[in-house]
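Continuing from the previous page...

OK, I double-checked the sequence for Quinolinate synthase against my notes and this is the correct one:
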Amino acid sequence: MRQKELQQKIKQLATDKGALLLAHNYERDEIQEIADITGDSLALSIEAQKTDKQLIVFCGVHFMAESAAILSPEKTVLLPRADAGCPMADMVTVEGLKALKKQHPDATVVTYVNSSAAVKAESDICCTSSNAVSVARSVAAKKLLLVPDRNLGRYIAKNVPEKECIFWDGYCATHDRLKVEDVEQIQASHPDALFMVHPECRPEVLNLADHICSTSGMYEFAAHNPATKFIVGTENGILWRLRKENPDKQFIMANRDMICPTMKMTSLEDVLHCLETMETRVTVAADIRIKARTALDKMLAVPR
Ligand code: 13P
Ligand code: SF4
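Thanks. Re-ran it with the corrected sequence; updated C-alpha cells here:
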C-alpha cells in the first residue's frame, strides 16, 4: 500500500475507533505527519490525560506509554511496537536502585521520566529534561541520587551546586555519541549558527552550547530566536517539525548518526495493525502505579 493510502486508512480507523494518535518528536516523519499531537514524552502523557478520548495510540517507546497509563489508568493505552523500549531506561533495575538507596539512606531519589514504572515507584520524585534543574532545587534534602542518566545528572549537578549529587551510570547512546570534535567541525563550517543541544549529551558537549533544552524547548528556541541557522544536538526526528515550523531557517545535525533505533521502530504498518487488533495494551499494576504516580505528581507540582 502506498504511504498516503496507509496514512488515510490509519486516520479513518482512528476516527472510527475514537482514538487519539500521539507521536514523540523522534518518531519517523510519516508517523509525526498523521499524529493528532506531537511532543516530548511528558507533554504527550499530559495530553493523554486531558483528552476525552478513551483510546490512546502512543507512537513512542515503552516508558512513555507507561507514563500515560500511570496518569490515565482508566484509558486504553496502546503501543504499536511492544518491543520499542528505551535502552537507557533499561540500564537501571529496581534491585540496583534499592541497593544504592541503602548506601545513601539520607538521599532523595530524583528519577528521569525515561525509566520504567517500577523504577519510578522506588523514586521520590521524577523529572524531565525540561524541568530537571527546578525539580532538583525544589527538593529539601542536601543529597540527591540522580537516576538513570549520568549526563543529565551532571547537568543538574552543575546547575544546582548546593546539592551533593550521586549519579547512576546510565546514558543514552544516541546522545552520548555526540563528541566535541563533531560540534567543533560543524561550527567551523557554520560560524553564524547557534548550537542547541539536549542535556542527555556529554558535559563537554554541553559546554559548547548556545542553548541547552528539551526537544520541546528546541522548537521554542528556534521559533523565537532571530538567528536563521541552528546546529541541532539531539535525535534527528526533531528536524521534521523544526523545518515545517521554520521554513526560512536552516537546521544542521551536529552528528548525522544521532538516530534512536527504538524510536524509529514504529512504522505506519505497525500503527494500522495496532488499531486493527487493539494490541499491544500497556498497563501498570496498581501497587506500582500508585507509587509511580506519587513521584510524577510531585514533579508536576514543582513550578517551572
Ligand atoms: P524529551 O522529548 O522529553 O526531551 O526526551 C528526550 C528523549 O530522549 C526521549 O526519549
Ligand atoms: Fe531512550 Fe535515548 Fe532513544 Fe530517548 S533517544 S528513547 S533516551 S535511547
